[in-house]
Automatic annotation (TrEMBL):
Residues 85-107 are annotated as: Disordered. InterPro entries: HPF/YfiA_ribosome-assoc, RHF-like, RHF/RaiA, Ribosom_S30AE_C, Ribosom_S30AE_C_sf. GO terms for molecular function: ribosomal small subunit binding. This is Sigma 54 modulation/S30EA ribosomal protein C-terminal domain-containing protein. Keywords: Translation regulation. Residues 112-164, 192-233 form the Sigma 54 modulation/S30EA ribosomal protein C-terminal domain. It comes from marine metagenome. The keyword Protein transport does not apply. One of its GO terms (biological process) is negative regulation of translational elongation. PANTHER family: 30S RIBOSOMAL PROTEIN. Residues 86-95 have a biased composition (Basic and acidic residues). It holds the Pfam family Ribosomal_S30AE. GO terms for cellular component: cytosolic small ribosomal subunit.
Amino acid sequence: VEFGDRDYAIGKVRALCELGHEPVLSAVVKLRLRDGTTDSLPAIAEATLDLNGVAVRAHASADTMPEAIDQLDQRLSRRLRRHRKRLEDRRHESEPEPAPAHPGYADLSADDRTVVRHKSLAMRPMSVEEAADEMDLLDHGFYLYLDADHGIDRVVYRNGDSGLRVVPRVDGEALPGRTRPPIHPAPLVLNHLPLNEAEVLLDEGDEPFVFFAEPDTSRGQVLYRRFDGHYGLITPAV
């Protein structure tokens, strides 16, 4: 990594330290280039700020290091502003409100369930850590993405105990764990089956989603439970 890129990243992160509205106890910036020439987004920029004991992280990848740093700056800025707003909201509340109860899933028979929402995503290649960042930014429980290191569709998701999982497993993969809660491989697999069988698998299982590919394609799709009792479907754009 060139010294100019290092200075550029340090300047960006230093300017962002004022946005958190909390003392910055430490700031760690990591820049690296993926090995090999086949990666479409070889430049990776990461940052972790310790705001009075609360870790705020962001991760970005791009064709060039300056582009990755600019994306990192935008994502870290959004997270810091969101963190600051949460602090201000808490300070303005006279009495804390109890956390809303989870609505649970509507009681709907399997025969009445259908796919009522279908999202087709144009997925750019990214690392598993960047996918986890996107999931956090969107406040979702899972995130379908195209893995830049392995060229396959994968899902990163929360497993209910503040841990993160990624599916499918890649043998010998060194998953990141130093700049966020560790990401572990999941026991789930990519099921090759038609949509109607994926619906049956979702109904019979305990997981909130099924990661599958229809027999005539190798692209991963996610069928998930909606709180209204129906299904949602996420597929890669062709």
